[in-house]
Amino acid sequence: MTAAPAEARIRTVGREARRFRVQPRLRGRELTLMGLVGVALFVGAASLGATEQLKAAQLNGGTLHVNLLAPADADLLVVYLGALIAVHVAFVIAGRRTDQILLPTVGLLGGIGLLLMERLPQNLAGSLGGLAKTQLAWLLIGLTIVAVLGVVVRSDVWLRRYKYTWAAAGVALLLATFVFGHDVNGARLSLTIGPISGQPSELLKVILVVFLAGYLSENRPLLVDESTRIGPLRLPPLPYLAPMVAMWAIALGIVIVQKDLGAALLFFAVFLLLLYVSTARVGYVVVGLIAFVIGATVLYFTFEHVRVRVDIWLNPFADASGSGYQVVQALHAFARGGLIGTGLGAGLPLIAGRPPIPALHTDFPFAALGEELGLVGILAILGLYLVLVERGLRIAMAAQDEFRAILAAGLSLVIGVQAFIIAGGNLKLIPLTGITLPFISYGGSSLLANSVIVGLLIALSERTREPLPAPRRVGRIRGMLDRGAA
């Protein structure tokens, strides 16, 4: 009677051993796309180098001899492309059947950011010999995180089992920032612990998605089928929704007090989108939008920094040389760029030795790229972010359980929503919130947090038998979660 269970355990161990055995597997699509990324970045670097040679010739009054084979800061580009190839090789050796589109897409975005940092004055920021070298260091650390997570993470138990612990740790980091942090442009965003300094709100966006994925996957049937009636209204089942809303509200409240409006808007949008993805109940979205309008109105009349941001958005030209200066200059940059742009490095010259937009490398990289790459260029960049979101949603559709599906959808939506917020702020579609453009803006906290997101998405994308399914039409986003609900 004991032989059968023992034999079953032996078979289980054997299957696990075969599962974790290293079997190198070629990744042809990824390698091809990586080659295209290398060509695109080399062309961009050559264009930037030619522009710099032209400026130098004009400054010195000499004869122009453009050498397109001498791109700007070629060493930095070679190191970066070498790191991308090293990550690809690590994935080949690991032999996992994971997504082959995410790494080249992220690689191209990071390369565009690196070229932008090379083009800007090197004394804007950076502690490793200038802006570009510091950005390269963060990119290399980020690619290492992508490689480690994409190769090592094979189980999500450590995420779903300790969701409350992760959430509590994230809120504790925010509280520590509020008490011990220091201000950045009037907002308390950064926390320094020994030699390490960063913005905990960047890490919290990942933690919040993990918590929401765990809670929504456990309580989804109740949230879908149950309702609390108040007169003619059907509201969510409050006893089951309250813990999740409370955790989200605590984090959101702390962020608002810290004046980090970008993170606040990101948290709210991701929360509402995940709630809809999990339940497909439009009523939740309507209630959430009504709450947003009421909350935004209260914040406008309560906090001066919120009122200033909204007033600048409504009419930046009212104080074009003061509070609205950066937004006005960003609009002028887009206008100068036109359809195809002025070319890398050929944007507006420096004013008194500084860029025309003070926060060009952090809050306004989209405006800089809009000037030098034009409408065609920024549409291509937005297309890259849509590719990241699309791959994340396909990973969610192919997931084997609801936790993985919600987690993959949430992680990809974080990047998409964040890119939309900063692009909309630069274009004056929404109030400027001071959030970073993923993988392009200067900054270590944002790069590392977004690298964690991409690494987890790659790990979640593994298929043991077949690659990701081809895109298919679904009536609702809910279709990705309802395959086994019936």
Describe this entry's structure for a reader.
This protein has 486 residues and is mainly alpha-helical. The chain has 16 helices and five strands. A three-stranded antiparallel beta sheet has the order 1-2-3, with helices on one face. It has a two-stranded antiparallel sheet with strand order 4-5. A hairpin with a 2-residue loop joins β2 and β3 (196-198). α5 runs parallel beside α16 (444-460), α7 (163-180) crosses α8 and α13 (325-337) crosses α14. The relative contact order is 0.12. Residues 12-18, 465-469 and 471-486 have low confidence and may be disordered.
TL;DR?
With 486 residues, this protein is mainly alpha-helical. It has helices at residues 3-20, 28-60, 74-94, 102-119, 131-152, 157-160, 163-180, 200-225, 238-257, 261-279, 282-302, 304-314, 325-337, 365-397, 402-426, 444-460, and strands at 182-184, 187-193, 196-198, 228-230, 233-235.
Helices and strands, in N-to-C order? HHHHHHHEEEHEEHHHHHHHH
The tally of beta strands, per DSSP, is 5
Largest sheet: 3 strands, antiparallel
Helix content estimate: 55-70%
Total helical elements = 16
| Overall pLDDT confidence | 80
N-to-C span: 37 Å
Structural class: mainly alpha
Keywords summarizing the entry:
5 strands, 16 helices, two-stranded antiparallel sheet, three-stranded antiparallel β-sheet, single chain, mainly alpha
